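Re: your question about endopeptidase La

S., sorry for the slow reply, the queue was backed up all week. Below is exactly what I fed in.
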Amino acid sequence: MSRKIYIRSFLIALVLIVGSTFYYLPYYVTKPGMAQELEPIVSVEGGDKAEGSFMLTTIRMGKANIYSYAMAKFSDYQELFAEKDIRRDHESDEEYNLRQLHMMDGSKNHAIQVAYEKAGKSITFDYHGVYVLGVIKGMPASKELNPGDQIIKVDNLKFQSSKEFIDYVAEKKEGDEVTIVYIRNDKERTAKMKLKAFDEQPNKVGIGISLEDDKSPVTDPIVKIDSEQIGGPSAGLMFTLEIYNQLTKGDLTKGYRIAGTGTMSEDGTVGPIGGIQQKIVAADKSGAEIFFAPNERGIQDSNYREALIAAKDIKTDMKIVPVDTFDDARSYLERLPNKNK
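Result:
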């Protein structure tokens, strides 16, 4: 083979290899992320400092190309998910990312509410309207609204929750017109829409949006959470513990590095999350000594039981603790001896 043919063949192969990395399959790959200390992220005015740390755990997720797909097939603690199992029907990447970020906002609000109520501190909420998470193609809203829009009025009425919005629309019939006032890019806009029946639910009418409350907590003392780059609701429990610890006297960490995961409901219930085994790996690599895992009332395939399997497999010394509520985690920490004594 002449030198010229060899070089040409090499360049062609190189172009094909590089190009193939940008060809994505209809799958997502998830792998262990990191355990991140919360004290730099969460700040309560006048809050106490901790000797140890509370940490949220993350997983890394991205679209799979042929190389990451193959690697995930043969790697421990990397998982493949079909695109349809990650995104909702007709959901774009933009809508998915917005949904994840808004779920984080809801998680923060619940964490703040539970922490302040448990600490006996003042908290109320300012309601700003309805936040548009997604828009259904073929429905009236698809011509006017985008994910991220904030609906502040319907027919000149303001609502105190997304449920009130849904109940108001549900009283109408197909063909009725509603006037929507919404904000996009800090600019107020108005649109008129005729209600339409949903294809999957012909007895139900609407404008065709998925929505959530858009509200912000008003607290005394003030709390700030810098989580703009974190999506999803799984940090709820750890946010609650960090906020509560800064609000109250003493140090719940007792000098330990404490990781964990789980959603937080308004009543203090800890809910299950995805990727628990990958989060065990992430926490262990980050030096966590204790890990709180959702117990799910002891069901056979609970997050806690899955966490125990991973912990045994990687031979970690990290203590895995089952929790069903915020109070479970707090009680465990209150009984914990100080590490440095």
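The chain has two domains: 32-64+101-121+221-335, 125-216. The first strand starts at residue 24 and ends at 37.

Happy to talk it through on Thursday.
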